[in-house]
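Note to self: keep these together.
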Amino acid sequence: MSSSSSHRPVLPCLAVEHGTNSDGQSKSTAFFSAADAESNDNKKPVAAAAVLALPPELLESKPSAVFCPTPLGWILVRECGDAATGSGITYLLHPQAPEKKIQLPPLRGIDDGPLIRCNCLLSDQPTSPAGGCVILLVQQNDTVIWYHRISSGSDVWIRREYDIGTQGDDYFREKIPIVPIAAYQGKFYFNCTPTDMGVLHFSSSPDEDPVFSSITTDAVPSPWGKGGSARVFLLESNGELYMVHLTLTVPRNFQPLATGSSSYPAILVYRMDFSHRRWLLVKDLRDRAFFVASPNSFGASCLAAAAGVEPNCVYSICNKSFTIYNIKNGTSRVHSFAHPSESIRRMSWMLPTDPKA
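Structure:
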């Protein structure tokens, strides 16, 4: 990294966790600055001066600690302890100001494996004067959510199994899981279909169960035909709800000559127009950058200029690499890592806590 780049914001960054290797060494974490992803040759961790700006809880890489980044920047941490008995310490960590740590009840009953794969979301900034922020954990491979309302006076996390329907065919059916999901204006929106979208609402009363409902929407527009498949993400950005489609397979009826394009787009971004309940295809992220990640369908955004990243771009983690898609000019760049892919345990985006930065 050049001396000039060492002064760039350390966040957003990509945290790459490596598991135990063949030499028996414990896991470690390398941090890659999104602002330094200027070419495919830049694979080095952020400079030491920038790394020192991160809290020691992240840099020490305790083997028994689990970190769950949220789209609002705060990081849920469960330190060493027994997941069954809840003897470990659980808290929300501010990556830019660790002294603002928010203590939480011990998170009991969920092992490290399922916890590390959860999608962790906050209904609002936990320090908001309005109070009542809900911390939500959505398990990836099970129809289970965990939640806790900050300042509710409760000393426990609540585990809830949900049933929002089934999917499959005559030979095999399974419960529909919540994926993707995003927090927007105090509620959680999830599972967009061509005609509706799920809504999860938590009452201000801690004694009331969360309410599952749905809203009808117009069919998602696509000028490139029907069919095909995509990996879908939901996220909030600057007071708007967005949906990101990363193309997996091209629609069978795609006609390049009719659309004026020689290839099907690798990415499509939509904004929800709640006044008409319809998704609008967009080509401008309003000087912001989006960050998405599989397999837990993480989605977040930040102001590009303040973070030193490219505006109108989607930074995507998939298959132990990351790609930067420019939705204005249709270009993309893939960034891989020098480490053997089998040594990577998890890759996570870490964002600034200020929603406007």
